[in-house]
Design brief:
three-stranded antiparallel β-sheet; 1 helix; alpha+beta
């Protein structure tokens, strides 16, 4: 009865063990990379869907009831409505909803009621402000945080620059800055930002197009 391995069997065993220890770590690494790519793709699609939904909402809660351009407290004065002539800079008479007799003000950032029916209702600070997009309250593989701020209005003379400089808490402007950020969730093994999408929305009222029947 043979009690040992031949040299050929020993060599073959060592080769098989070497292949196993070489291939398995690469398979595990490949699976991890595939999982991370899947998380990134899903996070990107969700972020695009979220910002796409947000930018199609009314600019402010008062726009859900009134179509006119709203008054602001600290915006560029050049964008104010001229109620006497009925227009504002960049518009034509009656074409920018400046002829309403009742003045309505732009509201503060945040939800006014249980419904999410305007842009700033989606303001959410569940991601910290650092560059790592840390998830502070949400669980899961990734977390989405939306920030909506009043920012400085573009200049009307020279080069128009879109600002991300926030106004004070009690100030409103004609420009809302929307930032949708996606970071890895607290249950994920990864950390950091996945992506960030930005959008500027302006106080132009709800555009209404008159229609007439052809006879």
């Amino acid at each position: 009865m043979r009690k040992g391995l031949t040299l050929i069997e020993l060599i073959l065993s060592m080769v098989i063990i070497g292949i196993v220890f070489t291939v398995i770590p690469r398979l595990v690494m490949s699976m991890n990379q595939s999982t991370q790519t899947t998380i990134k793709e899903e996070a990107m699609y969700d972020a695009m869907a979220q910002i796409g939904m947000i930018i199609n909402l009314p600019w402010d809660n008062n726009n859900t009831q009134n179509s006119q351009i709203l008054n602001v407290t600290a915006g560029n004065p050049a964008y104010d409505c001229n109620l006497t002539s009925g227009y504002r800079i960049g518009g034509f008479i009656g074409g920018r909803n400046c002829i309403e007799t009742t003045a309505y003000n732009a509201g503060p950032i945040g939800k006014e009621d249980a419904e999410s029916n305007d842009i700033d209702d989606y303001h959410d600070t569940n991601l910290t402000a650092d560059k790592n997009c840390s998830a502070t309250l949400k669980k899961g593989l990734f977390a989405i945080g939306t920030t909506v701020l009043y920012v400085d209005d573009p200049a009307t003379i020279g080069t128009a620059v879109l600002s991300t400089n926030p106004k004070a808490a009690n100030q409103t402007s004609n420009t809302k800055y929307v930032l949708v950020r996606v970071g890895y969730g607290s249950d994920s093994q990864h950390k950091g930002c996945i992506t960030a999408l930005q959008y500027h929305s302006f106080n132009i009222g709800n555009i209404q197009i008159n229609s007439r029947n052809w006879n």
